Predict the structure.
Amino acid sequence: MTGDASLFTTLSKMNKEGYVSFGNNLRGYIIGIGDIGKAPYPVIKDVCLVTELKHNLPSISHLADHGYGINFVKDKCTIIDSSTGSTIFEGIREDNIYVFYLLEDANTAGRCLMAKSIESQLWHMRLGHANMDTISRLSTKKLVRGLPDISFKKDTVFSECEKNKATKSAFKSKNAVSTTRPLQLLHMDLFGPSRIASLGGKLYAFVIMDNFSRYTWVYFLARKNDVLSEFVTFYNKVQNEKGFMITRIHSDHGGEFENAEFKQFCDTHGYLHEFSCPRTPQQNGVMERKNITLSEMARVMLN
């Protein structure tokens, strides 16, 4: 029961008049009944509003009837939610009265009054969020002055470590060939410019590879914008030679491939131009690996 009407979330008038007798032989009349409780505390139902009552007085039998367990020990009192087993309220003993705050202000209830760092975590931050195994070895072998001989365990994950040490998952390679005939899918890439031009003044290498046979064509270019004209020549020539039609081509988002002229050529001749995701060369891994192979071959042949 309470005498403060502002504590109620719901309140209704009593149909039948009742009263509570105080120790000084005075009476407080029950004028309403309702529910009390606001986050983060649970709701207590059927609480009486009593006039002239200056304190909030919980009824042990009332709490027990509403599914709460009450445990009294020498210096404290604990109220437990019987359905979950969790502690709802905990009060301390002052003289011969157990005092606890059912409706403490939620703003002050969550206020941090003291911060305490675990020593191992503190050293983890001091050493630039180094790996705990590394710090443990440094401590065991006495390699850092002042580093205490304590246990460094991976029992805490720092949000800073998760955010700034994250890496991409590995791209699994495909063991099966996804095409059934030559020219069904062509991979294309352009690498360069080379630091030294060739005798013919070429700085770039335009590489085209057939996905089915892995046959590769390499064209040397002086400028990047020569890619389309070179591909048009290749397109007409290779289809006549092989007797197959080009169905799809795959490249990265380089400006030499992703432009209006290249798109118009693809639309006119009716084949699909696929792109790998931005900043994801792994999706064009066939050509990236081929570029490395060609570069290694060229260096070996020049020596």
User: Anything to note?
Assistant: The CA atoms of residues 121 and 157 lie 10 Å apart. DSSP finds eight helices and twelve strands in the chain.
